[in-house]
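Sharing a chain and its predicted structure for anyone who wants a worked example. Both blocks are below, sequence first, tokens second.
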Amino acid sequence: MKSRFIQTLILITLLAANASPAVVLGQECSLEELANCTVRDAYAEIVADLISPETADSLRSNSDPQVVNSNTATPSPDAFASRVHASFQNFLNVFDLGISDFEEGEDGQSLIVRFNPRTRSNNQFGLSLTVTKPQISDTLKEAIPEDTRSAAVEGLESQLSDLDDLTWTASFTNSTKQCTPEKAATGCHGRNPKIYRGLLSKALSRAAARQDASVERAVSNSDDFGLDEKIAGLFPDVASGSIFGQPVSRATDPDEVIATLRELALQDAEAQQTSQAFYTENGFQNLAALIDNQPQLAISGSYRDPGPIGGPDEAALSIEYQFGGNNVNKLFGGDTDPLERLKELKDADLSDKKFVLSISYKWRDSFSRDELMYSDTSGNPVTLTDLDIDLEKKNNIMGRIQWGKSLAASIGGRNARIDFSLEAIWTDDEETRNQNRWVGGVTYTLPLGKQMSLPISINYADKPEFLSDSRDRLGVHFGISYRLPWEKDKT
């Protein structure tokens, strides 16, 4: 069910596309001179006068669109993405390859081709291809003698093809097929809003049934705005569907039209305020965040082939599991009425009690070049020798765990907090093997009022160089954090 106010916004937006003028005979439409307005614009002016400035601006922009000129000079994007996009579309239109959409990079140097996601049971698969403007590897450039580097790079660049640098990316997520109260009690997972549509619809329907008379009026059925009944008679020569685009002054009694519009606008403004209050007081604004806190396992992988002179091939695989303590499962997982629990969370910090576990693996292939051939500006073949490029394979594994929560202790309305983190990095690259490490830490943050806090940290690293200002593997740090008065409180 929609409030009269929301329906009014939708109707005004739709009618804004009509060709009727926003003003009459060049006269400006304003709250003081409503007779100069069309019925549509007069209603928008009246409603805008009764509601918030933000909503008023939205109403006016929808009712009376204006052209906004900008004198800011912006650089033209590279033509690479649009050129590849056109060639791809001309080719792929012949086949049904399940392309979802194309996205050109802002700088014009990359094009993302997204394929239609596949859903099987409770598993979702995604696939995309990124075509990047090819470049010569920096390692290769540096291996070319400096006195011939400029000419060699120019010659090698002429050999590059649009499709040299390709990156394939695949993703996988698993979710509950359809979350019910029984499944939520034991733990639904996944963050697709469609999973929770039926579950939340039932709860919100019960919430609507509990509203008092004023709120019920705000969200009750109001498909009939009453304009035909109250105003149609004042425009006897106009079809009812065209009344909104007519000048108020054309009515047999313009003052009666304005009075009726004021009455309807007042009802809608009151309904909007009542609905908004009910919405906020019951915590409905947190539903999206609660879904975003649901447990989720995501796996993604990528493979990049930068071309014959773009450098070594690369691949990556990541697995991440995360959840927030306040989520949809918690609403339905206890003895408390879900609506009451939702109301209790209306002022809660929903970023609290977050847990993240991630493991990532990166691989780089070997890359060797002793000589290269290219053609100079005259078309003569040139051979570069003794480049001595020999990059070995490289593997890198990184793991990370993060967890934090607010504590019961409170000072100045702010709760103390404890955070834990552990990170591990391993690589078999000879040049950076000394960077292999374990680093962990626990931080207790004690608030000292609204603007100040005292963090106390205990950190551990298996190599002392990864502890700042510490000679040993174990470090303890004290500090004072002060939030400047004009900064927004992120808590």
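Comments welcome. DSSP finds 14 helices and 18 strands in the chain.
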